[in-house]
Amino acid sequence: MTASATADSGATHTLDEAIAAVRSGPQGPRIPAVFDFGGTVVHGFTPDSALGRLLRRGNRADLTASLRNTIRGSRAEGEYERFLQRVMHLWAGHTESELTELGAELFRDTIHGHLYPEAWRLIRAHEAAGHTLVLATSLSAFQVRPAATELGFQHVLFTRMAAREGVLTGHVEGKPLWRNGKADAVRRFAAEHDLDLSQGYAYADAAPDIPLLELVAHPTAVNPGPRMSMRAAEQDWPILRFRPRDDVGPRDIARTAAGFAGLFGGATAGVATAAATRDRRRMADSMITHAAGGTLGATGVHMRITGAEYARAPRPAVFVFNHQSQFDMVVLAAVLGSGFTGIVKKEVTSNPVFGPLLRFAGATFIDRSDTAGTRAALAPVVETLKSGLSIVIAPEGTRSLTPRVGPFKKGAFHIAAQAEVPIIPVVIRNAGEIAWRNSAVVRGGAVDVAVLPPIDVSSWNPADMTAEIERVRQLFVSTLLDWPVPDEQPAHPVRGLTGP
């Protein structure tokens, strides 16, 4: 059975169409889903100029640049060979542990922001179908393993660099995973793991991966270059186009400056509006709503919300949310409006923007390294809830690098049970694109928010707490995978808050 006989039409497809095809296609672990890396899963990086390489020669920055800038999409003829020659010479004499550490650091600092969210959703669809996920790349393990781990790939095929006693020799071990080399590696892997390529899926962007796509029943060209586009048209392969995630530009800097101005201006106006009441809570609520509206209006970021009614009632409640970005604070303020405060990590007190605002709003700051101190700090929160004020908390405990929903801590759920109030999940999508995890720069776009129905925790058996919390976490996972339709008229709209 040939790929052309079983693939969908050769036209450009939407991501939703591709996900629907995965859901309706063959299921189970014998079905492989093979993804290329650069240009398919992650937007590539621009190579440095000769002058830039010369200025960095021989230092740690040069090693880091060689790991980052060789993550590319389509490569011209001979470019991959030059890449190998360069990195083999540069990496020779360095230890595998050093390159592994640099690769992990690079992912945390930079690469995570270049992952395609569209690829994330597609990978999750294959995972839900029970498929065996395989990342196949011509790059080294140092460049791809951190991303593969974060993305949930069980198996990674890569070009191996030879080492002797943990020190790189400057040679490749075996055959590079380039052109037929990658296709051969996938074919061997499939045979070793009893995978059925005749029902499998593969995704790649560049012409050298045509042999890989020809292996499977369901090939897809992602952001294809000219030669790949031509072959996709010839073979009726579907095409997907993922939007590049560009680096920070002048417009982003200007938008960020306007956002800070809107934040401070809105906060000041909010406090002034309610100052005559001399009621600190009313001033805090006014500050929160005006600051959120001012920030959204100044940055041009829009919000699309579903389940807005659950954001307003029942109150009080413990709102739990998935945390990926500093912009989440603005999102939550816009969605919840008033009558809430937060539980945040102690480190936020040093943030010159959010620290003072959160202190004024009566947030509880916790030291995550001090378990006993954390319990003591959370004890008064139960009384806060009983007084009628809602609480917002990120049960993951910290921001994630990607849309992945990490393990949930139990604190929020214990608090809700003790205060006899419901848990209300607030699922946020795309905030990590608006502002990357460790970045204060705001990019344009839209943030989707789904407020889910309240969950009564009063009847939970303490012995089953772990399983119950995991079920709540899975609500976040399933909502991110299968997003609900936004409300046409969100309740209590603020500036920057729109419908679908």
TrEMBL record:
<feature type="domain" description="Phospholipid/glycerol acyltransferase">
    <location>
        <begin position="317"/>
        <end position="431"/>
    </location>
</feature>
<dbReference type="Pfam" id="PF12710">
    <property type="entry name" value="HAD"/>
</dbReference>
<dbReference type="InterPro" id="IPR004552">
    <property type="entry name" value="AGP_acyltrans"/>
</dbReference>
<dbReference type="Pfam" id="PF01553">
    <property type="entry name" value="Acyltransferase"/>
</dbReference>
<keyword id="KW-0444">Lipid biosynthesis</keyword>
<dbReference type="GO" id="GO:0016787">
    <property type="term" value="F:hydrolase activity"/>
</dbReference>
<dbReference type="InterPro" id="IPR023214">
    <property type="entry name" value="HAD_sf"/>
</dbReference>
<comment type="similarity">
    <text>Belongs to the 1-acyl-sn-glycerol-3-phosphate acyltransferase family.</text>
</comment>
<dbReference type="InterPro" id="IPR006385">
    <property type="entry name" value="HAD_hydro_SerB1"/>
</dbReference>
<dbReference type="InterPro" id="IPR036412">
    <property type="entry name" value="HAD-like_sf"/>
</dbReference>
<keyword id="KW-0012">Acyltransferase</keyword>
<dbReference type="InterPro" id="IPR002123">
    <property type="entry name" value="Plipid/glycerol_acylTrfase"/>
</dbReference>
<keyword id="KW-0378">Hydrolase</keyword>
<keyword id="KW-1208">Phospholipid metabolism</keyword>
<keyword id="KW-0808">Transferase</keyword>
<protein>
    <recommendedName>
        <fullName>1-acyl-sn-glycerol-3-phosphate acyltransferase</fullName>
        <ecNumber>2.3.1.51</ecNumber>
    </recommendedName>
</protein>
<keyword id="KW-0594">Phospholipid biosynthesis</keyword>
<keyword id="KW-0443">Lipid metabolism</keyword>
